[in-house]
Amino acid sequence: MNLMKHFVLILVLVFSFTLSCSLASFGQEPKPVASPNTPPPGPAQKSEQEKEIEKKEQSQRILGVVPQFGVTSRHDAPPLTPGGKFHLFTKAAFDPVEFGLVGLQAGISQAENEFPSYGPGAEGYAKRYGAAFADEVSSGFWSNFFYATLLMEDPRYFRSGSGTIKRRIGYAVEQEFVCHTDKGGRSFNFSNVLGAFTSGAISNVYYPQSDRGASLTLSRSAIALMYGSLGGLVDEFWPDISRALFKKHKKDGPNP
């Protein structure tokens, strides 16, 4: 079975699981309808406000370009619903910028002749691009949606935003292995770890024969977790860096 067929299988799995979640929701009891003279209840209003806050958070970008959708500075942010987790996954995985970043990654891979079995030229680049894109989608699906929903864990990064630099660095690295739960509190981040190893195992389907096996799967999974920790450092400190850069820019600019 070729690379395209396996990639299609991954997408079919994603949308099949979503459809099953949607169908399950039909079994839930409908919400009571208020009479015309009854004012809207407070929780509903707060829910709408929360949706607006989440929408704003999931529009964050570094320098207006690089997505930073799964980051919140609210330590008491309400948990995401299964639908909210799926929306966050798809928004991050299929953002136009991600297609460009995957293309850059595939180009570097080809320039360094990684996975030589893929070959040179346009065909080799297309195979590297497909593999890199499948990695991104698979990793996001298992870590940020499937396991996060199944185990009721929050896939977002919760910024500390305060404390010493050393303490915040430790906090950022720790978040790859410690998460907020939907019930409140924190626990070991099974979603991230299981997602990394599941994605690594699935990659054996579409990587060349010479790049498959248990040891390579473990290596890819460990590298994915390492990159996740580095990403946590960016999520933690980017607002501080941004404020410092733009504050300096304003001071250096001409007076009105």
Per-chain topology:
Elements lengths: L2 H22 L17 H16 L3 E2 L3 E2 L3 E2 L9 H12 L2 H16 L9 H30 L6 E2 L6 H10 L3 E3 L5 E3 L1 H13 L11 H39 L4
Helix pairs in contact: 1-5, 3-5, 4-5, 5-7, 6-8, 7-8
Mean pLDDT comes to 82
Kindly name the structural category.
mainly alpha
Beta percentage is 5-15%
Give the helix proportion (percent range). Answer: 55-70%
Give the termini distance in whole angstroms: 65 Å
**Uncertain residue segments:** 1-45
Order of helices and strands: HHEEEHHHEHEEHH
Lateral arrangement of strands in the main beta sheet? 1-2
Rg is 21 Å
Secondary structure tally, helices: 8
Biggest β-sheet description:
2 strands, antiparallel
Dominant shape: globular
Task: Describe the fold and architecture.
The protein is mainly alpha-helical and 256 residues long. It is 62% helix and 5% strand. A two-stranded antiparallel ribbon has the order 1-2. Strand 5 (178-180) and strand 6 form a beta hairpin. Helix 3 (82-93) runs antiparallel to helix 5 (121-150). The radius of gyration is 21 Å and the shape is globular.
Using brief descriptors, characterize the structure shown:
256 residues, mainly alpha
Quick recap:
This protein has 256 residues and is mainly alpha-helical.
